[in-house]
Each structure stands twice: as C-alpha cells, then as structure tokens.
Design goal:
By secondary structure, the chain is an alpha/beta fold. It has nine helices and six strands; from the N terminus they run E-H-E-H-H-E-H-H-H-E-H-E-H-H-E. Helices cover 37% and strands 13% of the residues. Strands 1, 2, 3, 4, 5 and 6 form a six-stranded parallel β-sheet that branches. The longest helix has 22 residues.
Length: 232
Amino acid sequence: MIRALLTIDDVSSNNTPAIVDYLNGKNIPAIMFMVGQWAENHPAELIYALQHGMIVGNHSYTHPHFSEISFEECKKEIEKNEEVLNKFYEEAGVERKYRPFRFPYGDKGGDNKALIQEYLSGQGFNKVDDTKFGYPFWTEEGHNKDIDTFWTFDFAEYNIRPGSGFGLEDVMKRIYDKEPGTGAPLLADGSCHLLLLHAHDETEAMVPEYYKIFIEELLKNGVEFVKPEFIS
C-alpha cells in the first residue's frame, strides 16, 4: 500500500474552487499553502477553500527566496501573511486549528535557517507528522527536525509552460520514476509520501484539469490519500 498526504501550493487562483470540488468529490483531504499577495487578488476563491474543508497554511506574503532576504524580512513575510490568513479564516467563519508553514521554493533561508526554525517553533507553527517517512534524505537533510512542511515527491507540473519543453508526459515520467534525482520514488510499495502540487491557472491553460489527471493516475496505482496529522 502507498499512503500520501496531498499539499497544494500557491493558493489562491481562479482554479482553486475547481480543485477543492474535485478533491471533496473524491474524499481527498489536503493542506493548501497560501501566498497572501496572490490570495488578496482571489479572495472569494480562498474563502471557498476554507469553507469547504481545506486546511490553509502560510506560504509567505510575496513568495520570495528566503535565502536572498534578511532574517527580519523573513519574519515580516511570515507575519504579514499570518495577518492576511487570519483575516480570511475570520471572514470564512472557520476556526483556524492548525498553522503549517511552507517555504517558497523549499528555500529554508540559507544562513538564517536555524533562526527561522527557532522563530517558527516559538510562534507555534505546527509540524506535519512525518514519523512514517523512512527515507534517508529526510533525516540527512534535517527535515525530520524542521518545523516547516517540506515534501517527498514534487509533480513539478509548474514547469508546464509555453516553450518550456516540459509537458504532461514529463510529469507522468516522474510519477513512474523508480530512481528520482530528488525525493523518493512515488509508487514504491509500502511508501508514505508528502506530495507537492500547485494551484496555477497557467498550468490549467496548458493542461485543463491537470490536477485531476495526476491524482487519477495515483488512484489507479492504489495510492491512498490520508488525513493531515500534526505532531506539534
């Protein structure tokens, strides 16, 4: 059996409600990570996600590379996004029970990584339960100790853009790759994964309902989607 927790970055977008409806129709829970600046351009879509059962976490306010800004700027990115996210939860009439955080681009802040992790812990951010991940890279890279939410498999569908040379078939190759250069093989029996997908209208324009295509492929291969759990 293959178990997986689905996470979706960069909400909100025009296609966010359609993604939410599809996931709910399949009874697939997910954590969505909000970029405040983008969500302010799509407020109704963000509120829709909250009111239809999605956990929405902090993905910074402007989506910068954290290693390229100061520690104080990192804190401002997180704190401003917290203000926006709390406002959306309030407007949606939904209690905010969990506060996961994901770094944009998985960039944990370079020389400021330890300071940011200490800050996240002190501010009460929640760590996703990763105790079932037995991958060597997870502990070698310190993800087992970090508060932020990293991933074990990235669909990389955000590369599907005009002229990129990367398309639907390339994502399918990643799904079936038994020796990926990063992360862990997705379809290895007995594995447990934290999946990374994105809510991008640009991808939707290139491959309509791309999220549905990829998730259906996983369901066809016996992947069981699990409910988010937290250990702190």
